[in-house]
Amino acid sequence: MNRRARAEILPYLAALVAIVFLSGPAFGQVVFVGQQPDKDYCYKIETIRPNLELHEPTHIAGRITDGHDAPLMKSRVELRKYVSRRKQVTVKVTTTDEKGYFDLGTVAAGKYRLLASPHRGFQQPTDLKCPSGTMCELDIALQVNPTDLPVSVCPIR
Predict the structure, then answer these.
(1) pLDDT per residue as tens digits for the range 32-60
(2) pLDDT > 90? residue 88
(3) What is the pTM of this model?
(4) What is the per-residue DSSP string for the chain?
């Protein structure tokens, strides 16, 4: 490449470098190109377990925050009856308010999977505890999930 060609391309390279450094962190998602994984792919790489067990009918409410105590505002919260690692049935759905609070009402005794985040941007809680009694106030602090894991292409379960 001659000196004139380099001089013409230099402003474009400088702009590209500035964009990369000034844009901050980039987020990505695993995308399959070509042959898709088999239909059992997500079940093979992720084990789903109940994360909430109730021994009596219990009123469930609480607050959801990120790892820095910022509330998850207007965020979907879903409670699923745990049947098996392949099957969970939606029991109740609600949305957090501006301060991250939610109320699912009274739920029958049983094993459940509470999805505190509507996407894989955060890890789902693994072991939620409700003391015995008819009221359970959960304080859930979610942790950020890496987006480049093989499970990133799977639906939340």
Answers:
(1) 555 556 888 888 888 899 999 999 999 99
(2) yes
(3) 0.73
(4) --HHHHHHHHHHHHHHHHHHHHS----------SSPPPTTHHHHH------EEESS-EEEEEEEE-TTS-B-TT-EEEEEEE-SSS-EEEEEEEE--TTSEEEEEEE-SEEEEEE-SSSTTBPPPS-B---SSSEEEEEEE--B--SSSGGGGSPP-
Q: State the CATH class of domain 41-153.
A: mainly beta
Domain boundaries, the chain: 41-153
28 contacts: CB under 8 Å, gap ≥ 6: 147, 148
